[in-house]
Specification:
A hairpin with a 5-residue loop joins strand 1 and strand 2. The chain folds into two domains: 235 residues, 3-Layer(aba) Sandwich (Aminopeptidase), CATH 3.40.630.10; 91 residues, Beta Barrel (Elongation Factor Tu (Ef-tu), domain 3), CATH 2.40.30.40. Helix 7 crosses helix 8. The strands form three sheets. Strands 1-2-12-3-13-16-14-15 form an eight-stranded mixed β-sheet, covered by helices on one side. The protein has a six-stranded antiparallel β-sheet with strand order 5-4-9-6-7-8. Strands 10-11-17 form a three-stranded antiparallel β-sheet. The protein contains eight helices and 17 strands. By secondary structure, it is an alpha+beta fold. Bound molecules: zinc ion. Zinc ion binds next to helix 5 and strand 13.
């Protein structure tokens, strides 16, 4: 298992919510021949299947990432935009972007008023999206349209990942290509006995947990486990008492977030597996946001659900940071736990 190689492949493709095709293609390529069956559903979720046992486990990891969308093209040739998912406007100025048009990809830069001519009150206030625009090098609306740019075109951040010291990697969309990496490696290496495992790469999570709902209802599973990232608190301005999660301390067993609580049998399953196989782990309790795991109990007549997370710093920025040890240990924890799951769900 080389999680670094797999992660870097997933970080090299873009997949803004609603345009996840490249991530889906990569996941299918990675798993082809290594699972019993793999297919895409009507909305673009990638579903892989392994094993044929009675107990059915559904794993999900969202493939999409946050970004922007063209909302207006001015007569002066400058483009206005709206967010897709939870984007922090403060990180946008000076960023290079790629606009996906019907004619191909067009480069642009996000800009605002030059610092020298900003008034005192402008220098003191944080940017909002309405203060920003995209320059693609065109002088008027006609030239922009000639490039193929239209209202509704998706805009992606151009940043590439970089290696940091040790086993740390920084880049955009670690949320949730880290989860895609875990899901892919779990599906590659798992050898299910008395178990059927469905590994689902989902679409449109960042705009309200949309894609996972279909497979959760459509696949008649007994248990649902979602794999996503968790906010790592080991940086300046985040105090231990608020977010005690840290990089390189192991996967996060998500206990509770703003709208989810782990199923008690799944909690025991993952804790027992971590202790038995000496896998480091952390317990996640947060009030900030939620993940696909919150949908499990709302599915059909209710399904036991759990979140297994990987700690990541600076979430939804373009310089998120992860430690490969945590990804490796998350794969290990999920594979080992699923190996014992029949004892917990008879
Ligand atoms: Zn996520």
């Amino acid at each position: 298992m080389n999680v670094g190689d797999t992660l870097k492949k997933f970080l090299s493709v873009h997949g803004i919510s609603g345009l996840e095709d490249n991530v889906a293609t990569l996941m299918k390529k990675e798993l082809k021949g290594k699972v019993k069956k793999i297919y895409e559903d009507k909305v673009g979720n990638v579903i892989s299947v392994k094993g044929s046992g009675k107990l059915k486990v559904l794993l999900t990891a969202h493939m999409d990432e946050v970004g922007l969308v063209v909302s207006d093209i001015g007569n002066d040739g400058f483009i206005r935009f709206a967010p897709v998912g939870g984007v922090d406007p403060k990180i946008l100025p000076s960023r290079q972007v790629k606009i996906h048009t019907e004619k191909g990809v067009v480069n642009g830069v996000i800009a605002t008023k030059t610092v020298h001519v900003q008034k005192k009150e402008e220098l003191e206030k944080a940017y909002e999206i309405k203060d920003l625009f995209i320059d693609v090098g065109a002088d008027d609306k006609k030239s922009v349209e000639k490039l193929g740019i239209n209202i509704g075109d998706f805009i992606e951040f151009s940043e590439k990942f970089i290696d940091l010291h040790g086993r740390r990697i920084s880049g955009r969309c670690l949320d949730n290509r880290v989860g895609c990496t875990v899901l892919t490696e779990v599906m590659k290496s798992i050898n299910p006995r008395n178990l059927t495992v469905y590994g689902v790469g989902t679409v449109q999570e960042e705009i309200g947990l949309k894609g996972a709902r279909g497979p959760m209802f459509g696949i008649d599973s007994d248990v649902i486990v979602s794999i996503d990232v968790e906010i790592s608190g080991d940086t300046p301005f985040l105090k231990d008492e608020h977010i005690p999660l840290k990089l390189d301390r192991g996967p996060v067993i998500g206990i509770r977030d703003s709208s989810y609580t782990i199923d008690k049998r799944l909690k025991k399953l993952f804790l027992d597996a971590a202790k038995k196989y000496k896998i480091p782990y952390q317990l996640g309790v947060s009030t900030a946001g939620t993940t696909e795991s919150t949908l499990a109990i709302l599915t059909k007549d209710g399904k036991p659900g759990a979140l297994i997370g990987v700690p990541v710093r600076y979430m939804h920025s373009t310089v998120e940071v992860v430690d490969l040890n945590d990804i490796e240990n998350t794969v290990k924890l999920v594979v080992k736990a699923l190996g014992n799951i029949n004892k917990y769900f008879r």
